[in-house]
Description:
Blueprint: H1 2-18, H2 28-31, E1 48-50, E2 58-66, E3 79-87, E4 92-96, E5 101-103, E6 109-111, E7 120-127, E8 131-140, E9 143-149, E10 160-166, E11 175-180, E12 186-194, E13 197-207, E14 221-223, E15 232-236, E16 242-249, E17 252-260, E18 265-272, E19 275-280, E20 285-289
Antiparallel strand pairs: 1-2, 2-3, 3-4, 5-7, 6-7, 7-8, 8-9, 10-11, 11-12, 12-13, 14-15, 15-16, 16-17, 18-19, 19-20
Amino acid sequence: MKILSTLACFVACLFLLSLPSGASEIPESIWAGAKKRPAGGLPDGSYAVFNPGSKDAVAAWYGTPTRRYRHAILGDDIEAGSLHVALRDGRMFEVHLPESEVFEDRTPRITDLDGDGRFEVITIRSFANAGGSVAIYGLRGGRLVELASTKPIGRANRWLNIAGIADYAGRGKPQIAYVETPHIGGTLYFVEWRGKALVPIASIAGFSNHRIGAREQNLSADVDFNADGRPDIAVPSNDRRTLRIVAIEDGQAKELHHVRFPAAVKSRRSSGNGCVDMRLTNGGTGRLCREN
């Protein structure tokens, strides 16, 4: 009887170990799209959720807070050493970066970049000796792996900030728009995922979508400004006092319109119907709308 009891315990323990881990670690409200700081995550981070409310929902967040990079561009010197992904059925996946790298970001982004029905996670990853890059991750063979990335900027403490993810070029799949070095003469790049690379397809200079030391990263907005059925992007100028609308036309990034504000852009307020509203540092609101 003792042998049978021991065997039963052994089988039960194996069964428990085989259950999907972490299902109870994600608050139920997160799956509906609520904003909350992940347990063990960044002090100023939150969950990103793809397909909220669906049985196929996916959550992603940054973990393993670390001070090994000490750039403090987002308000403190705590960055992330790991990326975590949870599926609605309870399965959990994670990637841990080497000591020479961090995720210099607050919340990852999740979308289907290639239209194959599978999600990708878009991150900002920084190298100790080479600065920032855009890196995308996805599930392959039951593991969370890197799928593609841009080349890092090339110097330590050089950062980039993602501005948007949409089909700006009208090619039937999204491009990633980001501002490289938004604090020292930023350039707006559009990159497209091809194979194992994120390939630049267009760029235009003179932008900033972040203020040094601020936690707010959402200073841009997608809007169909020229009413051609595909999104354009609104991004502040280098001094953040002019909101510029950029489109990709004939393979080139082109400014369609701009509006000067009485103060610098602080955060995005809303966008839609050809208009973009931004909160300003003086407490007011700046608006840019297309001419009908």
